[in-house]
Write a structure and sequence with these properties.
The complex is a heterodimer of chains A (715) and B (102). By secondary structure, chain A is mostly helical. In chain A, 70% of the residues lie in helices and 4% in strands. In chain A, helix 15 packs antiparallel against helix 16. Chain B has a single domain, classed as Orthogonal Bundle (Helix Hairpins), CATH 1.10.287.3510. Helix content of chain B is 75%, strand content 0%. The chains are: A mainly alpha (715), B mainly alpha (102).
Chain lengths: 715, 102
Amino acid sequence: MATETLIWLIPLPPVLAFFLIVLFTNKNKALSHMLGVGAAGLSWLASMVVFVRALSVKHLGEHPFHASINWLPTGETWFKIGVLIDPLGAAVLFFVAWTIFMIFLYSVGYHNFGQPKGDHDRPGLPPHGATVTDAHGHKHTVPSVEPMYSRFFAFLGLFAFGMYTLVVSDNLLTLFVGWEIMGLCSYLLIGFWYGKPSARNAAIKAFMTTRIGDVFMLLGIAFLYSVTGTLSFREIFTNEELMHALGTTATPVLGLSVAGLISLLLFIGTIGKSAQWPLHVWLPDAMEGPTPVSAMIHAATMVSAGVYAVLRMFPLLSLDPATMSIVAFIGAFTALFAATIAVAQNDIKRVLAYSTISQLGFMIAALGIGAYVAAAFHLITHAFFKALLFLGSGSVIHGMEHGVLHTGNHHVDPQDMFNMGGLRKKMPITFWTFLIGGFALSGFPVITAGFWSKDEILADAWAHHHYAVFITLAVAAFLTAFYTMRQITLTFLGEPRTEEAKHAQETPWTMTAPLVVLAFFAVTYGWVGIPEHFPVLGGLVPNWFHDFVGHTLEHPPKAPEFNWVPLLTSLGVALGGLFFGWLAYRNVKAPAEDKLQISVLKNKWYFDEAYDFLFVKPAYWIAETFVYKWMDKGVLDGILHFIAYITGVIGAAIRHYIDLLVINETIGDGTANTVKWMGFNLRPIQTGRIQQYMLASFVVLIVVGAVLYYFLVMA
Amino acid sequence: MIPLSWYLVLSALLFSIGLFGVLARRNAVAILLGIELMLNAVNINLASFWRYGNTAQMGGQVFAIIVFAVAAAEVAVGLALIISVYRRRKTVLAEEIDLMKW
């Protein structure tokens, strides 16, 4: 099959699975998950074939796989949509295919497929567990299957469709369509357990927050289209005249060029999608969804779309230094800011959520300083190890829920790290894979992928003299290593702190297998991007990633010169952070002993409260006081009531003075009364005496005769 | 020859007497007699106009004969009615036959 045809087909299976599950198989859990996983597998297979073929093409950057069709007639031309796989697309497709496939597989185990139905489970709430009696007559409480199992796979299918569409698009419009489909799926998955008020609120919050970014992004797309007349990436980026014009034409906004303004608007979309400050607030709340799976979607896959969009628009972005600075500032600030919050969180998923925000900040900052390849590299390695960490945390929570079901004490929060401890013995596979993921996140030297990508960002920042960004990111990297080790120490090391942790259990193979696969990539993917001049290791493996992805751009960036300062910095912060994290938390038993439970960090710098005060409360106030009470009740109802009153008055006047008086009394009753009066008064002449009648006739005859005679004869 | 106007005056007198009888007499039979007088006054008119007009045309005489026939029929019906009323109400006075009053 032609590669282009194959690319067209990649997004198709998941959306077919979505419709099939929704329409036909939603009653049958086994069939639904087979459809879902099968579809994800097909897409994965097609993606891998495309990836391998892309590797074998020389100069893929200049001759990417590209096909498009006429879609919308726009006057005499056509708006084209199509598919494009260039080096960046191929690299992104690779990790997207792997992670999505792993999510599907993992969901089977996470939603307890094969377990009995719960005793009192209801759709819209997490399963509570089922009671079974074993052969010896003992009663056990075991996890029960998710009541809306099929629906979950349908949503995942639609989500996968959105992500694949976004990745293979050759233009901004279909990219935006995929983007919005994922926005919808994100809403649906966060609110999957809609029986919980917190999940409902989180879903609405996520949708509203990302919507703010999306509106700006749509503005940017519209602006770009009105300026260039096309949305196709290659048509814009390969047209040097056009690019030059975009970069030099000024706009009235902030002194930015057209290119700068467009990429700033598009970047605001990314701020929403990739949860950058100041629109980061939705992501931690998104952890309300089914624990690891939607968390992973929101952390490892979907949020990557935001960074991917900036990577795609990088040629445009790089035209305007002012926008670059804004991007770099937002990214670096977010990286540090989110890392400080992560340090004080106790919920295992929330730590990872803030860590995600922080790591996305790294990528955005890298883009802001022009480190295109480093950003793409970190995007991919991060997707692997963060997916691994989220699935690992889901596995931990799943194991803890086992313990909770065993003891029956439902007041124990299976997500609170202070309830865990010592899980390494109970859940060895989860522990080792989580450890690999955590070390990759911290940037543990040499063996983990995270080290290479993070090091490359720091090296780039140093080499191009962005010292502020360099220092900020170095501090953030230290905090990253610190909170990661804190998490590992609290969760897996030491002794179990609760009865539940003692009875935690390793999870089934459908959950651990994806962990192992992702752990493999979390280590090995770093090796494809080792800088050539790195001491000892440099040059052993060619720096394939830089070469490959760098050629996506017209003018491939040069790899930064090797320098000891960033290398030692990244070694120091990673190892130092890990060591201090272990040192500080190895003996901590309860939250009270944790010195970093500072309320400003614990409460996320009060951003939720501030937004509540600045936006939500005023919105409610406007809705309640202004719109409802003043506008609706007062002004609009007042006008209506006044009109009604006037109408009533006019109606009464018409009734009294026209209807009752003129119509009824004068015309209606008046006619009748007159006739009656006349009849009454004329009645006496009917004497019944024939001679009187005749006399009267005679008199009339005489009179009429006389009159006629007078008028006809005399005159 | 006696001028036409004499006949006409006679006829008018006779008609007036008949009319007076119809209007003034109480007895229904007398009223009927008044009507006969009026009819005959008409006959005089018809005959005299014929005689003083074109005698070759017989219209006036024929009309008079028709009036006779009508008068005879009318008297027959009228008397029959009066007899019928008398049998019911024991009266032939016109003012007492007033069933059609208000």
